[in-house]
Amino acid sequence: xxxxxxxxxxxxxASVGATGSSHKExxxxxxxxxxxxxxxxxHFENPATTIYNPARCAYANYHNKYGVxxxxxxxxxxxxxxxxxxxxxxxxxxxxEHYHYTSLNYGIGKKLSERxxxxxxxxxxxxxxxxxxxxxxxLQTDIGLTxxxxxxxxxxxxxxxxxxxxxxxxxxxxxxxxTATIGGxxxxxxxxxxxxxxxxxxxKDWRIKNGFEFSYERASFRCGCMLFPVLPTLGIGFGxxxxxxxxxxxxxxxxGYSIAIGIGSQF
Length: 267
Fold this sequence. Notes:
Layout: H1 2-19, H2 29-33, E1 57-65, E2 72-81, E3 86-96, E4 99-111, E5 116-129, E6 136-148, E7 153-166, E8 179-189, E9 192-201, E10 205-216, E11 219-227, E12 231-239, E13 244-252, E14 256-266
Antiparallel strand pairs: 1-2, 1-14, 2-3, 3-4, 4-5, 5-6, 6-7, 7-8, 8-9, 9-10, 10-11, 11-12, 12-13, 13-14
């Protein structure tokens, strides 16, 4: 049992070390297929991007790291557009018996003009870690901005954990620190787009993310890459009559494959 726990903690640490010391990458199958870019996320990690979806929609997905069942990530979200602003509610659960967290996130996006939009989100995160006397409750806020430079080019800025505080204070600090993302999306054709982002965490961990998506009839083909280290990604999506189904896979040269599956609908 102790050996199993040790291996799971090692995988968690190795994964974090490979992708940023204190920031977990997005886990949905669309973003993870496009080099883990945020702009295309069906959960709207950048709340300012909610204004580009005019319909109510819901999405749920499961992401697994390296074929280890304990490293599973469950997510679900719902978007409700309104004339004054677009609102989004997002739920996430990650981990296993000895390390897991659950978060509830409420975001809101507002169109400021024909080109600019602003969004903000507040997240309540409950963290359990075996060995701590008490569970942690952390409050975090994000702020995002998008600018539609032309009909084909959209730029974005997102600061995650812009404000962060621990509701249940303890002697040990478990705050993750801020993560800033700058990038955007280039609509190359009506059915093809390229997303590119530069991300930094605490001014010391940097990542380059980019992904390409091509749609043909009801199918979407996606590929991308995240640096550093090199993490190639691949995925596909299908538009069904009332639902959409997405699959993705990424490969780490030391830890192996991660897969994700998701389903969504507009209503």
